[in-house]
Amino acid sequence: MAFLIDTHCHLHDREFFSEAQAEEILKRAHEKGVEKIICIGTNHEDSLAARDFAEQHKNVYWTYGIHPESAGREKSPFSERSLASVVTGLGHSVFDPSPNMLLERDFSSRLIAIGEVGLDYHYDGYDRTAQIKLFEEMLQLATDNNLPVSFHVREAFDDFFPVVANFPKIRGVVHSFSDNKKNLKRILAETDFYVGVNGMATYSTLPTPPLERILLETDAPFLTPKPFRGIINEPVYIPAIAEWLSGKLGVDYQTIERETTKNAEQLFHI
User: What is the pLDDT, as a whole number, of residue 59?
Assistant: First the structure.
């Protein structure tokens, strides 16, 4: 039976969703065929909140990441510690002496990626050097632990491509792509990365990736798709994004459902 996956949301974030709201939102999503949901970490504490939420719910997964907005302000916990020793609660594991390496991981933890991490030069006052350093550290963490990456890239693709080129084993998805055709073509030609399509695509003129490279996401509570603009976003709107994509690409809804789910399962092994 076909179903959909929300590959990027923040349902665990209590700044936006109360515990009761999150439970109701999950129920609504499952009723609409959105069976799997990935909660994305944006800093150390937020990632652990995503972990706790995921481990309490069936078919909910989580990622560990430090967003570029924290570069130069939040000390990285990985200078002398492995991923599993930083992210407590992964079960009994055996560690390599190298700082970031985790040899054995308890996969019942539902940790399925590093993210969201990357580069963001949109706002004034960003520290390019600090962001690149943090990004490289997160990519090394992903490489050491054989995890894919959820990339956050905004107005920074000129630096993004050289950085990821130094990590040839990295797999991942460019979350919430919001750039031009030139950079989309570079992603498709120079990497094997998937591209996240969310509600922003339904009310903008963004270029659309080919179906074989698309992952569906909401980025809830942000970027609510048409025709639901003006209210808080949630995973239940993944079908609306799939419906829009069906019309945009000229393929039936079932194909969008099948192919985007297959893409997500291949990347995240869920």
Answer: 95
